[in-house]
Amino acid sequence: MAGKLDLDAAVVARARALAARAGQPVVDLARSHTTVSVERAVLRLAGVTGADPDGIPWVNRLVDAVRADVGLGHGVAVPVFHAMETAGVEDVTVLAQKAAAGSVRFTMPARPAKARQRARRATAAGLKTIDRRRAERDRLIKRFGDPKQRPWIYLIVATGDIYEDIPQAQAAARAGADVIAVIRSTGQSLLDYVPEGATREGFAGTYATQENFRLMRAALDETSKEVGRYVRLTNYASGLCMPEIATLAGLQRLDMMLNDSMYGILFRDINPIRTFVDQRFSRQIHARAGIIINTGEDNYLTTADAVDAAHTVTVSQLMNEYFAHEAGLADWQLGLGHAFEINPDLPDSFRMELAHALLARELFPDAPLKWMPPTKHMTGDVFRGNLLDGFFNLAGALTGQGILLVGMMTEAVVTPWISDRDIALQNVRYVLNGAGNLHEDFTPGPFIRGRANQVLSEAIDLLERIVDDGMLNAIADGTFGIMKRPADRGKGLDGVARQDEDYYNPVTEGLA
Amino acid sequence: MSIVRPYGDTTGDGMVQLSFTLPIPHDKRAEGAAIQLANKMGMDPAMLVHAKPMGDGFTFFVVYGKVAHLVDTDKVQVVERDFPLLSAKEVNAAIKRGLRRRLNVVGACIGTDAHTVGIDAILNLKGIAGEKGLEYYSELSVTNMGAQVSVPDLVETARERKADAVLVSQVVTQRDAHLQNTRAMSAAFREALPAGKRPLLIVGGPRFDELMAPELGVDRIFSRGTTPREVASYLVHALAGGSK
């Protein structure tokens, strides 16, 4: 499908080169810092599990104890595994319990080689589990098969109760969903720990926990067998615990994770440095686990105008691509996001949507692309909403989108009812049946080509400004999605530390 | 003409449409059950125009039918706009005259609500539907704290900025979070500041009942479809002695 827009290859190459130049200082920042959540993810891979009686995970208690004694800048692996030896403890979780009780002290050994080796061995076991899960997914896909059509149909469940989510997710898969996303409880992104166990209470969503991941994946494995195609499971590696949630996703064979490079900064006011450090580690894990990431460019268009800010989506996609490649993700793992959010009252709104969607398609020909439905202009007029969703589906089919998040006509009214989901899937099926191959007959004219090229050239202008200003300054100035987020503010900054000379992280070493 | 009834295609025909799901498999009995429900809801006769099985044990129905009910528009209770709608110029002039300084507004989405679309539509320069937001008004000094602001932070910022008015947006309504958050917010302001010093408290969101202001401890509730101009006009009315 490439080549309908007559994009100039030299211009595209220039856009990528600018994105790399803008992103490089951020990567340097990520490589020279660590965070509490990165260190906790290391400990999870080393085998620390469970939580104290108050529900605070042992990884949190252990990292806090290490930090109090020797700081975070060395990484926790060496002090933890050194303490294992000096305290004569075999099990890291037991060490965490002892540390929480105050009966273990942490120090940096003069010669860290032995502790490093033990840490490496322990985390290698965790990485091996992730590798086994990935192989298991490959086997199941071979056995049950991939969806017959593109785009894959992506549906959300969100009841707050994992045991209520499971039958809903299974019903959605039977009704045609290829990907199930369990929306997280509002506010989980700002928790600096990952809750434990199966959960039955949440606000507008269900907590992401290792046990919830396991339960849902097991249920969808059953359904995959029943429907004869592998049903993928999605969750959110975002917020303050991004690295840990990515790790848990790898350990429980989740298939896709929402993982944007800037979403937490812009929309949750999480500190930019915290986000970039956490994001790099989480993407390294996703790369290893064979997980497809979904980026969140759609969100920019819910706060800024979808026409005026179209180029910010392109810029963010290019940045997300750069950061993703740098972290080891392959093109097939890049579900770069964009959305159908142009005001439907504007003349030629649908043609502009096609231009933007096609631009993303042609800029990233090997990425699956995540196509997000209208939300901003959904009003409660469910009849008009259903029509808009139909046009959204048509744009998705016509421009070869890889993952289509099914829009609900009751967006902005209620969390989807069973009938809303059924009507929405009927809408998708009609469009894909009736027009799924229309892209073969569709050749854009001067309007769409012109608009796409204009957005690309605006994106290049903006990238040039970002290179001049520096990425962190651009974020501080409100370049993306209007929100201003200075690098020295935001939530989670106190969990960031500069790496010391002797910083050691056995996982990043193992992933490199 | 204070007595009306629904209109299909003829005055007085009383026609309405209804859709719903019953948790039973689709068969003749299910269709009968749907008509029974419509009858009990006052639709008589009720025409079942669509029935579709969904999944294993559910059926979706669309019913058209006639209702006999009359509504008396004189007996409807609503919060009518009790202040004049002003232009931006009039708002600015009224503030200059009434306060002799800029009017300070602090806005936020509180609690875990991350949906800034409402507060941004009212506050951001960009505004909504072609109408500029409060930042556009030269005599309004606007602080937009964004999403997921804690109540103590909001109170602190309101105090620091000497806020004349605090605007809170709440979109998420699951488990009545919007009501609980609003009550917590108004209680915190009552606790932190004496009555005379308390800023005007305004909440907005698509699912609020405008009649609930006293119950929630706020001065005003704005519901779906509110424009920045209405909010600005209300601020002037309540704080700057109107527009005379």
UniProtKB/TrEMBL annotation, chain A:
<dbReference type="GO" id="GO:0003824">
    <property type="term" value="F:catalytic activity"/>
</dbReference>
<dbReference type="Pfam" id="PF09043">
    <property type="entry name" value="Lys-AminoMut_A"/>
</dbReference>
<feature type="domain" description="D-Lysine 5,6-aminomutase alpha subunit">
    <location>
        <begin position="5"/>
        <end position="509"/>
    </location>
</feature>
<protein>
    <submittedName>
        <fullName>Beta-lysine 5,6-aminomutase alpha subunit /D-lysine 5,6-aminomutase alpha subunit</fullName>
    </submittedName>
</protein>
<dbReference type="InterPro" id="IPR015130">
    <property type="entry name" value="Lys-AminoMut_A"/>
</dbReference>
<dbReference type="GO" id="GO:0031419">
    <property type="term" value="F:cobalamin binding"/>
</dbReference>
<dbReference type="InterPro" id="IPR016176">
    <property type="entry name" value="Cbl-dep_enz_cat"/>
</dbReference>
<dbReference type="InterPro" id="IPR037086">
    <property type="entry name" value="Lys-AminoMut_asu_sf"/>
</dbReference>
Automatic annotation (TrEMBL), chain B:
<dbReference type="GO" id="GO:0046983">
    <property type="term" value="F:protein dimerization activity"/>
</dbReference>
<dbReference type="Pfam" id="PF16554">
    <property type="entry name" value="OAM_dimer"/>
</dbReference>
<dbReference type="InterPro" id="IPR028991">
    <property type="entry name" value="KamE_N"/>
</dbReference>
<feature type="domain" description="B12-binding">
    <location>
        <begin position="102"/>
        <end position="244"/>
    </location>
</feature>
<protein>
    <submittedName>
        <fullName>Beta-lysine 5,6-aminomutase beta subunit</fullName>
    </submittedName>
</protein>
<dbReference type="InterPro" id="IPR006158">
    <property type="entry name" value="Cobalamin-bd"/>
</dbReference>
<dbReference type="Pfam" id="PF02310">
    <property type="entry name" value="B12-binding"/>
</dbReference>
<dbReference type="GO" id="GO:0031419">
    <property type="term" value="F:cobalamin binding"/>
</dbReference>
<dbReference type="InterPro" id="IPR036724">
    <property type="entry name" value="Cobalamin-bd_sf"/>
</dbReference>
<dbReference type="InterPro" id="IPR036843">
    <property type="entry name" value="KamE_N_sf"/>
</dbReference>
<dbReference type="GO" id="GO:0046872">
    <property type="term" value="F:metal ion binding"/>
</dbReference>
